[in-house]
Amino acid sequence: MRSYRRNRPDRRPPGRLVATAAVLAGVLVAAAGCAAGDDPARSATEAVVPVGTASPLPSGGPATGAPSAPAQVPDTLRFDAKTLDGTPFSAAGLAGKPVVLWFWAPWCATCASQAWTVAEIAPKYRDTVPIVGVAGLGEQKAMKDFVTEFELAGTLQLDDRAGTLWRRFEIVEQSTFLIIDRDGRVVHQGFLDGEDLTRRVAALAG
């Protein structure tokens, strides 16, 4: 369109009307073609990205300093609870990481034998593979005493006396470890001894 304005005649001698008309016809055809593909109001430096495609990025990856997209929350981590001390907890905050849910009861001898391993490895993998205890089938005082006795205070422990999470994940016995990978898929549900638990958590962290 700028080309049209630049070449548009204002007042010309009658003898050049035929030539002017020919020039105008050619310019109008070119302008129509531009209108189909370009928006005159769009800045010349603005990138045009077709709908449904990603914005063009350098071959090295996202631009430096660009915020990373939040992880999508899988169905397995769409639940809320409270910790043994009454603090609200949302599992959605664990999305994007492998997670281990440990279902235990305070009177369970097997749980007691596994508690030492959990207390040992959970702090080490807190930021990479969180281990979350889900206490059930008992009284809150007994659960708190269990945590104190086996030095689990540094590990997140949920109060599930009502059995909400046990039913949600169809837990039928204690002690049960339920391992969720970073994509939200359950990759193990069942018993693990201390050695197997340590090996699996280390593999997930790597």
Automatic annotation (TrEMBL):
Give a GO molecular function annotation for the protein: antioxidant activity
Q: What Pfam families does this protein's entry cite?
A: AhpC-TSA (PF00578)
* Residues of the signal peptide: 1-35
| Region (Disordered) location | 52-72
Q: Do you know which SUPFAM superfamilies this protein is assigned to?
A: Thioredoxin-like
Q: Where is the composition biased (Low complexity)?
A: 54-71
Q: Which InterPro entries match?
A: AhpC/TSA (IPR000866), Thioredoxin-like_sf (IPR036249), Thioredoxin_CS (IPR017937), Thioredoxin_domain (IPR013766), Thioredoxin_ResA/DsbE_sf (IPR050553)
Thioredoxin domain boundaries: 62-206
Q: Please indicate if the UniProt record lists Signal as a keyword.
A: yes
Q: Which UniProt keywords apply?
A: Isomerase, Signal
Q: Where are the transmembrane segments?
A: none
Kindly give the PANTHER family that the UniProt entry links to this protein. THIOL:DISULFIDE INTERCHANGE PROTEIN DSBE, THIOREDOXIN-LIKE PROTEIN HI_1115
Q: What is this protein called?
A: Thiol-disulfide isomerase or thioredoxin
What is the species listed in this Swiss-Prot or TrEMBL entry?
A: Micromonospora coxensis
